[in-house]
Known about the structure:
The chain contains no helices and 24 strands. By secondary structure, the chain is mostly beta strands. The protein has 2 domains: about 5-145, no CATH class; about 150-295, no CATH class. The strands form 7 sheets. Strands 11, 12, 13, 16, 18, 23 and 24 form a 7-stranded mixed beta sheet that branches. The two termini are about 40 Å apart.
Amino acid sequence: MRATSFPPLAACAAALLLTACGSQVPVRSSGESGRPSCDAGPPQKPSATAGSGGPETDGVTITDVGGLTGDCAVFEVTNHHDRPFRYTITFRFRPHNGAAPVNASRVLASVAPKATVTGTVGMPALPTGTVGGARVEVVKVRSVPTEEAPAPGGPCPSSGVRVYADEGDAAMGLRVVRLRLENCGTDTYHIEGYPRLSVLDDAHRTVEGLRILHDGSSVAGSTGADGPPGPLALKPGEGAHAGLVWRNTVLSGTPVNAPYVRVWAKPGAAPVMVTPELDLGTTGKLAVGPWKRTGRQ
């Protein structure tokens, strides 16, 4: 985890220091060329830069803090993969006076392979009365191949269908996340049975030894992820859903946490990588329900 301390707000314009892992790096002024300006706000598109060589959190490095009141952080993202990746980064700002921390997120739609890009993230509004500044840290980085990124909105993918996951429900250790499929194309889309799944860890490696069970009732009833599979012919504007069901029960053994699931809607379909944040405990199983029609979107 990379943590950066903001000095007291009144002193930010005079002296801003980056603090992480025991090192201090002078913060560059907002007018210095070659760096994005915190005062100008987050850029629409990150600019390509050379890597700073500092410590990373899953490819992300906080390099500077700035702004007239120290309300912004500059970060770099390095794509170590061999193809473009989309990055979603969650930052946490922790006020020095002990007030509740606040989160901010940035999404980089596509970072080229082996490239480093730079962006900025602004500090969200802190509680009234916060004094002494805050420190910022990277708390989570999620990345998926750009060509496999889910598309819940925007232009229709070339496949003519959108596949994505909802936010899910959690209660008493039971987790339910629904895969959503929407026919946004011009032709009827035919699916039948269950989506095919591959569970991946935070390094995008396949998690071995899991049981992927058809029928959500094998984990818990009344989740909507049960019933017999059948053929569906989805006209443009119609959709379907399939439930992912698991428990995070921990008994003996090593718990399994796997953020990613690669999904094939049907044989021959292009894969989509969703991020349901699976916390399977030591159960070793994930249930998936059949595709069911959800009507016009």
